[in-house]
Inverse folding.
């Protein structure tokens, strides 16, 4: 049997070549073994790997979709909040605009109220104007501008609008309070003026109620009004102004003016006195005033002439009926300037001073009568000294 060396020699391979061949065969065998192992591992674990891969992909997709959903919900909430805020701003703007319109309307009501006379608690008391007061136009209250354009409304939708709107609301609230105070002040002023007129009328011995219009029937169910502070003050102001206007007109119709111009010089007072002819005590039904013959004698209030003639001891006399039982007489005139039935206004000349009738010299005998009874004319003259007449 040939030896190994002999076999190698017969094959024609050198020892080095033979070693290389063996190494190559070993590497091939190893590669084949690894490939077989890998193929076997792939075939065995393929489905499990694929399942794991799919699971990871599904988990990643779910996480992504969840994040997308979270972001979308956040965007939706933000959009809803912006819309709600925009709607709230629009509602506040609409409310403020309506409130401003109401304030402007109320300012017009305040401007239309008549001015009351000066307060009566001022020392010394100021003379009271008797003429009808002109409407006292109040200076309009400044109101914030709320008529916003598109850019302003876009700005109002921003975060800074809340502070701005709050300032506007506070400004309108202050204006509303000022209007309520103004209405209450007008009511108080008119009430004081009315009280002063009422006091002047009472000083003459007349009751202000004497000149009230006849009461009419009133009634109906009680339906309370839910008035706010301004409406209550405005209603009270109107009531006080109506009362003050009525008393002002009453005062203007009473004989508060002087029958002669300038400072009056009384030569005889009202009441018991020594008669200049009999030298005994007698009732003097008026007051005597010094006057030059021919001096114009004027009506002390508006009225209608009920007598303009020679009347015994009165001499030439003019009688004026002022209504409500109130009459004035002007006696011892040198002549008359009116006729019976004629309407005269306060200050019109009714005659001229003289010394006709039962008289000792040129003067004016002046009387005031209430319901036919003579009363002291100086009640009216003293009260009239506190009045300012618009001639």
């Amino acid at each position: 049997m040939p030896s190994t060396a002999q076999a190698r020699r017969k094959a024609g391979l050198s020892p080095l070549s033979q070693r290389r061949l063996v190494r190559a065969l070993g590497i091939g065998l190893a590669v084949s073994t690894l490939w077989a192992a890998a193929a076997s591992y792939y075939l065995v674990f393929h489905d499990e790997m694929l399942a794991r891969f799919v699971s990871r992909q599904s988990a990643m997709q779910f996480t992504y979709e969840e994040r997308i959903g979270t972001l979308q919900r956040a965007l939706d909430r933000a959009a809803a909040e912006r819309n709600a805020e925009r709607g709230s701003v629009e509602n506040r703007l609409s409310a403020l605009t309506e409130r401003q319109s109401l304030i402007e309307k109320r300012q017009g009501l305040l401007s239309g109220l008549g001015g009351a006379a000066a307060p009566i608690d001022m020392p010394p008391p100021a003379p009271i104007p008797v003429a009808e007061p002109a409407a006292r136009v109040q200076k309009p209250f400044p109101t914030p501008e709320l008529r916003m354009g598109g850019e302003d409304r876009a700005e109002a939708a921003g975060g800074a609008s809340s502070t701005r709107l709050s300032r506007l609301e506070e400004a309108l609230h202050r204006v509303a309070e000022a209007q309520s105070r103004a209405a209450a002040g007008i009511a108080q002023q008119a009430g004081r003026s009315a009280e002063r007129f009422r006091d002047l009328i009472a000083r003459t011995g007349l009751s202000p109620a004497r000149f009230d219009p006849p009461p009419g029937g009133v009634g109906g169910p009680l339906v309370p009004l839910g008035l706010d502070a301004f409406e209550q003050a405005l209603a009270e102001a109107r009531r006080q102004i109506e009362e003050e206007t009525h008393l002002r007109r009453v005062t203007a119709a009473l004989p508060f003016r002087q029958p002669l111009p300038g400072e009056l010089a009384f030569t005889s007072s009202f009441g018991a006195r020594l008669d200049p002819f009999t030298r005994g005590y007698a009732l003097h039904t008026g007051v005597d005033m010094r006057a030059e013959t021919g001096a114009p004698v004027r009506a002390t209030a508006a009225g209608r002439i009920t007598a303009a003639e020679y009347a015994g001891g009165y001499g030439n006399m003019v009688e004026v009926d002022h209504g409500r039982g109130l009459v004035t007489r002007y006696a011892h005139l040198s002549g008359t300037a009116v006729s019976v039935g004629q309407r005269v206004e306060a200050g019109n000349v009714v005659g001229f001073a003289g010394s006709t009738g039962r008289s000792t010299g040129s003067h004016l005998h002046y009387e005031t009568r209430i319901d036919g009874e003579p009363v002291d004319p100086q009640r009216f003259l003293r009260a009239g000294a506190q009045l300012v007449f618009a001639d």
